[in-house]
């Protein structure tokens, strides 16, 4: 039978597709995780793709239902309904990809001209003799300044400590890496200069190794934050660090070790040396930032919630025990408030990259959720304690986004269709799945507006303590004989989480006296936000009910912002300017907070000014 | 009987003197170590003093012989011949003091206006609230800059790590210590700022604790350099460090630990805290400098003898493990060459302090001897390997300047009169004693011009291997029954040492085409140089035969220079300028070096151009 070569972008993977095989089947054979909730029946519309090049079978009725005429013209298809008739190229939107593969697409370039803070210069020196016994460093600085018209006046002591033998082994020619007026590292000539961008999250650390001269990302890797053993969320981490200086130092060292390991792994992947990392930018929430920098965190958690520092800081990486180039600095982007850290600054930097000046809501959902409303140069920011429910904590069968977690779900005719990470047998449910479950249960009438569960529904039963909706029955899980359920208590947890987020959004709208319709773009950043079905989030009233095309799920925007600041000194300066202009709103001090929060906890569209609803 | 109160300066000690008691006896009763070789007979002229206030018995014949009429008028006396007739004040020249007490006089003020690099500012802050939750550091920097019209832009991360709790315990008011645009330390307001000046010698470390705001020296202390266990001189220390990076680090850590201990001891004496040391200046020879800074030393000892760095460097003290104020810097003055270090720069800085512009020879005698010839703005410098003989090494009965060492000596009528350190029973002979012995033996005809010992002298005998001159006979040392001698081999060692020094001096004169008479002042710096009898050094031809009043024995001028650079930013800049202008001469490459050296090894006045002398 005829086979065709299909290229899948942006993954850059190819597969061979038989004429009697759908693009979905072809993708799965090629190891590409396209979501398919209905199992290829054309019902769930989760396998959306775009046929960019090549020809295929004509659109089916399911596809004509799923897409507008314009979209059909642009090549939008459902992968399970499409049979290729030639070689072709397929575009995969991130929302159609399963977790594992969506992460792979995050490494894409940030698209600014490289303008690094550390610059590389070639220097050639005269060989010393008995009549010209000038010191090595003095000789180097003179030659560097003369050959490149610079005014460098110092050499990092760590770099200097290796210079004398290096000069002699490199034949009196080398690469000097210069930061402002300081020489911070040396390498043979020619050799490349690397940069490391890090998003230090409470639970996850993402690292990006970048070629500073080209701006290209060479490797991307995510690892767990090892501090998690000493407190799952920010507040418990702060409590631990506050117990003693030794414990704070312990948390600091754990992260430093993890960062050294991460840098080593990234360099190994890129066939580079950590000693060539001459610059680094790190972002994180204020507590992570402070713990890494060795700053006190006690005052973060006590009213009036004051950071030790907001403005950007540069620390010699060696001073923290980071093993990069000897004189490399770690640049920490500015924090915004005690609970809005440099990671949100980075999100804003990434969001404002380019000529984007529509009224934009930028939201980074996590245990703590940061929200900013951007209107031209005016930025209003708040933070809300959304809690760890979306990370699976305090949810009966909740789990992190790992293999076997239900990440997408829908209820059709009382049957639950779901997709798990890695297509592994279901073992629990992660944040995006929980969100889908809430929306589906609400839309199916299993949950009322107030969140109360309809005990008459055939999949609802009474569990140990609460009513529970059975997602996966005992019989379906032959190995463990335990059902996967959503309990009434789980629903309450999610209501609290989504109410906190919605209250934050409302506070920003009210501070600017805007209706939600005024928001032209919603940027959803962060791991969790990338994987959610926006329609579900709208259905339960967590996000404003705006047209879906206004939403962008941008993945790790904090990491992107960190890379921008790493590659470009202009972007680094822009970050400081963004923060200086922010109007920060402390949610607890907003008038009417409690009323808004109460209303926001209802499922369905947010309506602040209506009368009493049915009890929550 | 009548008693008088006598004050001894610069020690600031007082004693009561009976009318029948000489000032020498009075000083000894008061615990003041005035040298007296002849035991108070008026013969040795070693107990020279100046009666500054008060009256006394008329000058004796011995005194009229010892002093000119003018000197008698100025109150110059021999302490052993002078009986007070009223209360009075006595000036003690350093040369009349024994070792132990001479050191005490070194702490005197350096006499420049304080102009420290680190400045203290009082800052008062508004208390934060829920509506003013600005970060602590940002709040501080804004207030500091506004209240004092500064443009500080960063806070040392170590200082920052303590700021938040400090602000809260000090009531939102503090002292900010500012260096250039960086805040490096905080203290309660008011509180003083301290500085530490260090002369890091191969065998001894001298520390000076200074009040930075007044410029006053609060405490002075000398300790041994603990690296001495890993090599007594520079070359063996370099050899050890070159064996492995771990060994170099070991040497570095030893000194860092000693410096921390020294700083702690000085602060304890001054009732201060090491955390208030906000600035430090360190000088040392190039090898000590490099080992402390973690710089490679291998290339120092290999032709063409190149330092890793000459120019001044500022290193965060914390980076070396020095426990001063969190953000304090250690300033290392510039080196001159591989064997002329920042300690000699400091000597030059101290020498050139004030309006001193006569043609001056500055000489710092040690295992390595540095010599500079200064003529207005022109400085010519060299270094000579004088070896450790003057420190007692390779001398049969040689020892360091410690209790019981013969430090002054003369030979009268075949009898040896000597003075020991602390007046303890003689156990050996230290550098200044050896130098006296050489001169006295030469003048008494026991040694010929070539250094050969006259075996017919009644105190000369044949020892195990060599002829030896008996300084202290077995019978005089009842406890050990061992004589203290100067051997023919000892004489050879000293000849080599003094020849090296004299060759260096000659090389500088020749480079400038000067006769020695052109030298108007000779500054003799360093521990050994302070204690020698200049007349002895002239007698054996080690120093030029110039009038004695042209010589100044200035003690630890390197320490004084370090303090100057610590107290005054102008002096710090001057040090760099001095070094930039120096014409350094590598002795080994000077034409005629061997011939000069040979001639310089003869005892007696140096005569280069004469014919053959008697064999050495």
Q: Tell me the fraction of residues in β-strands of chain A, as a range.
A: 15-25%
Q: What is the mean pLDDT of chain A? A: 91
Sequence stretches where pLDDT stays below 50 over 5 or more residues of chain A: none
Major sheet details of chain A: 6 strands, mixed
Rounded to the nearest angstrom, the distance between the terminal CA atoms of chain A is: 60 Å
Shape of chain A: globular
**What integer value in Å does the Rg of chain A equal?**
27 Å
Number of strands of chain A: 27
Oligomer: homodimer
Identify the most extensive interface between protein chains. Answer: A-B, 51 and 51 residues
Just give the CATH class of the largest domain in chain A: Alpha Beta
The total number of structural domains of chain A is 5
Helix content of chain A: 25-40%
Query: Widest sheet of chain A: strand order?
Result: 12-11-10-13-15-14
- If you consult CATH, what is the topology of the largest domain in chain A? Nucleotidyltransferase, domain 5
CATH superfamily of the largest domain in chain A, by name, is: ATPase, nucleotide binding domain
Structural class per helix/strand content of chain A?
alpha/beta
* Helical run tally of chain A: 17
Which CATH architecture of the largest domain in chain A would you pick? 2-Layer Sandwich
């Amino acid at each position: 039978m005829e086979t065709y070569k299909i290229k899948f972008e942006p993954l850059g993977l190819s597969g061979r597709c038989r004429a009697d095989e759908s693009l979905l089947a072809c993708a799965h054979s090629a190891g590409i995780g396209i979501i398919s909730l209905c199992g290829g029946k054309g019902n769930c519309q989760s396998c959306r793709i775009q046929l960019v090049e090549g020809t295929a079978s004509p659109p089916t009725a399911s596809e004509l239902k799923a897409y507008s005429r314009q979209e059909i013209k642009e090549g939008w298809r459902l992968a399970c309904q499409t049979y290729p008739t030639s070689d072709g190229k397929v575009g995969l939107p991130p929302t159609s990809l399963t977790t594992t593969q969506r992460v792979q697409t995050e490494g894409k370039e940030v698209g600014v001209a490289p303008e690094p803070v550390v610059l590389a210069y070639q220097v050639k020196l005269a060989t010393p003799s008995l009549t010209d016994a000038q010191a090595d460093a003095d000789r180097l600085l003179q030659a560097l300044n003369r050959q490149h018209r610079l005014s460098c006046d110092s050499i990092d002591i760590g770099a200097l400590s290796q210079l004398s033998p290096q000069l002699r082994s490199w034949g009196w020619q080398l690469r000097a890496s210069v930061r402002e007026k300081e020489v911070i590292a040396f390498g043979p000539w020619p050799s490349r200069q690397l940069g490391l961008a890090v998003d230090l999250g409470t639970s996850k650390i993402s690292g990006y190794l970048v070629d500073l001269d080209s701006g290209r990302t060479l490797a991307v890797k995510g690892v767990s934050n090892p501090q998690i053993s000493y407190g799952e969320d920010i507040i418990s981490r702060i409590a631990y660090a506050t117990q003693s200086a030794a414990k704070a130092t312990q948390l600091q060292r754990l992260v430093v070790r993890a960062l050294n390991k991460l840098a080593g792994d990234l360099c190994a992947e890129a066939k580079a040396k950590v000693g060539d990392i001459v610059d680094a930018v790190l972002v994180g929430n204020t507590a992570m930032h402070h713990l890494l920098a060795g700053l006190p965190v006690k005052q973060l958690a006590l009213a009036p919630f004051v950071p030790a520092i907001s403005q950007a800081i540069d620390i010699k990486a060696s001073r923290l025990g980071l093993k990069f180039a000897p004189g490399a600095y770690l640049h920490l982007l500015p924090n915004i408030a005690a609970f809005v850290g440099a990671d949100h600054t980075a999100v804003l930097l990434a969001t404002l990259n380019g000529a984007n000046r529509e009224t934009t809501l930028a939201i980074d959902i996590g245990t703590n959720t940061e929200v900013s409303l951007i209107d031209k140069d005016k930025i209003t920011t708040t933070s809300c304690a959304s809690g760890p429910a979306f990370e699976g904590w305090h949810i009966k069968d909740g789990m992190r986004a790992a293999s076997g977690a239900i990440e997408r779900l829908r209820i059709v005719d009382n049957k639950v269709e779901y997709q798990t990470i890695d297509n592994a047998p279901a073992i629990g449910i992660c944040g995006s799945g929980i969100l889908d479950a809430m929306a589906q249960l609400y839309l199916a009438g299993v949950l009322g507006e107030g969140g109360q569960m309809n005990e008459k529904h055939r999949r609802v039963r009474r569990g140990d303590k609460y009513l529970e909706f059975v997602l996966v029955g005992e019989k379906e899980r032959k190995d463990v004989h335990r059902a996967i359920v959503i309990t009434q208590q789980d629903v309450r947890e999610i209501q609290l989480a989504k109410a906190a987020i919605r209250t934050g959004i409302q506070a920003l709208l009210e501070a600017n006296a805007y209706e939600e319709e005024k928001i032209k773009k919603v940027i959803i950043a962060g791991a969790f936000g990338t994987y959610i079905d926006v329609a579900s989030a709208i259905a339960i009233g967590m996000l404003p009910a705006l047209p879906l095309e206004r939403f962008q799920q941008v993945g790790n925007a904090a990491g992107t912002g960190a890379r921008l600041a790493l590659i470009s000194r202009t972007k680094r300066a822009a970050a400081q300017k963004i923060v200086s202009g922010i109007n920060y709103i402390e949610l607890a001090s907003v008038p009417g907070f409690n009323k808004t929060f109460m209303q926001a906890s209802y499922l369905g569209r947010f309506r602040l000014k209506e009368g009493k609803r049915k009890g929550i």
